[in-house]
Design goal:
The chain is an alpha+beta fold. It is built from 7 helices and 5 strands; from the N terminus they run E-H-H-H-E-H-H-H-H-E-E-E. The protein has a single domain, classed as Orthogonal Bundle (Arc Repressor Mutant, subunit A), CATH 1.10.10.10.
Length: 143
Amino acid sequence: MLLYLKRSYRKEDLAILKRMIRKKYGRIEKIKKIMQVKKCSFPEIGEAYLFYLGIEDGMVEEEVFIEDKKVLNALTAKRFEIIEFLNKIPPLSIKDLANRLGRDYKNVYDDVSALSKFFVLNSLKTGKEIVPLGVVEHFEIRL
C-alpha cells in the first residue's frame, strides 16, 4: 500500500518557510557553505537548500510517498476537513485554525500532529505556535 500526495506552497507559505530557514541557517550563501563543509551529511540542510532555491524561483512543489500502512489510521473525516480548510485559506496557527473551525484546540493540535507525523501535512514551529503549510493538490491511495 502506498499513499501518494502532491503539495504546493503559496506565497504566504514560502514567506514563513524563508523566515524560518533564515532564522535557523542564515542566508543561502551560509547554507551553501554548510553543505560544502559538511558534505551534506544532514538531510535537513539539503532540504533547506532546495526549499530556499524554490523560494527564490517563487514556486515550490513536492511529491510525498508514504508506505506506512498506519497512515490510514491518521486519515479521519475531521482530519480531511482540516486539509480541505487549509487548502482554501492562508497559513494559520493551530489556535487560529481551531477557532475558525469551531473545534477544541487540543483536538485540532492532535489532528495536525498526526497528519504531520506521516507527512500528509507539513507543519512548522514558528516561535511558540505551529503552522501547517502547503496546499495538498492531489491525494491518492495505491495498492
